[in-house]
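Incident log, structure service

09:12 report received: a user says their structure output differs between two submissions of the same chain.
09:20 pulled the input from the user's history:
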Amino acid sequence: MGGELQALGLSFLLVLARVGGALVFVPLPGIRQGPQVARVLLAVSLALAMYPAWPEPPEPAPDAARMAAWLLAEAAFGLSVGLAVAFLNETFAVAAQIFGLPAGYSYAATIDPATEADSAVLLVMAQFLASLLFFALGLHLETIRIFASSYRWWPPGAWMASAASAQGVIALGAGMFSLGLRLALPVVGLLLLADVALSLLGRIHSHLQLLLLAFPVKMLGALAMLAGVLGLYLKLYRGAAEHTFRVLWEAMASRGG
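09:34 re-ran on a clean worker, output below:
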């Protein structure tokens, strides 16, 4: 009986290491500012919820050095999945950084609840929007499915960081910047047209004080354009999410052929 409990405890630690590694990067709202005990309880609860998918208890029980190596490998696996999901949500932050400065919103700062530091208003709004879409589209459930199914292909101690896995994560990071640019281009284009129109108007009527109108016109124009392309943001985000999780599933299933 004692041996079975020990083996079950080892399996729980391996699952907890894999799930806990992902929670470092998965964008759960308020998780970084919540109490440390609540974060630990969340990781433990997720590990217990995946009890039907727990790996077979190691036989015989590994020694301390081998167990430490397994825990490091499990944590690295979770970090890789969490980083891939974080790249997906950071696309909105990249877009907000691109068009926030020319729109004039870089002067309006607020407290970012994720970092407790001064951040641009559009950046904080973009992070909240990405977090809401993450849960509204059920991506948190897809992340849990990945962890629950991962032990079919990658039992404890089997996963090793490779050039192929690193290349996949790097490609997702590059996609973060390209998608962020695509999200920001409509607003940046409108702001460019507004600058050209104000410049031409100032050239024609040099006595007009258009500098005082530039900031409110660009700020209101940026908000109007954002309101008009929110539907496009949802479509692009869903497509990027499908690509991200397809890459993760393919990376896991590559072992099993």
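09:41 both user submissions now match this output. Likely a transient worker issue. Closing.
09:42 reviewer note: The chain is about 75% helix and 5% strand. The mean pLDDT is 76.
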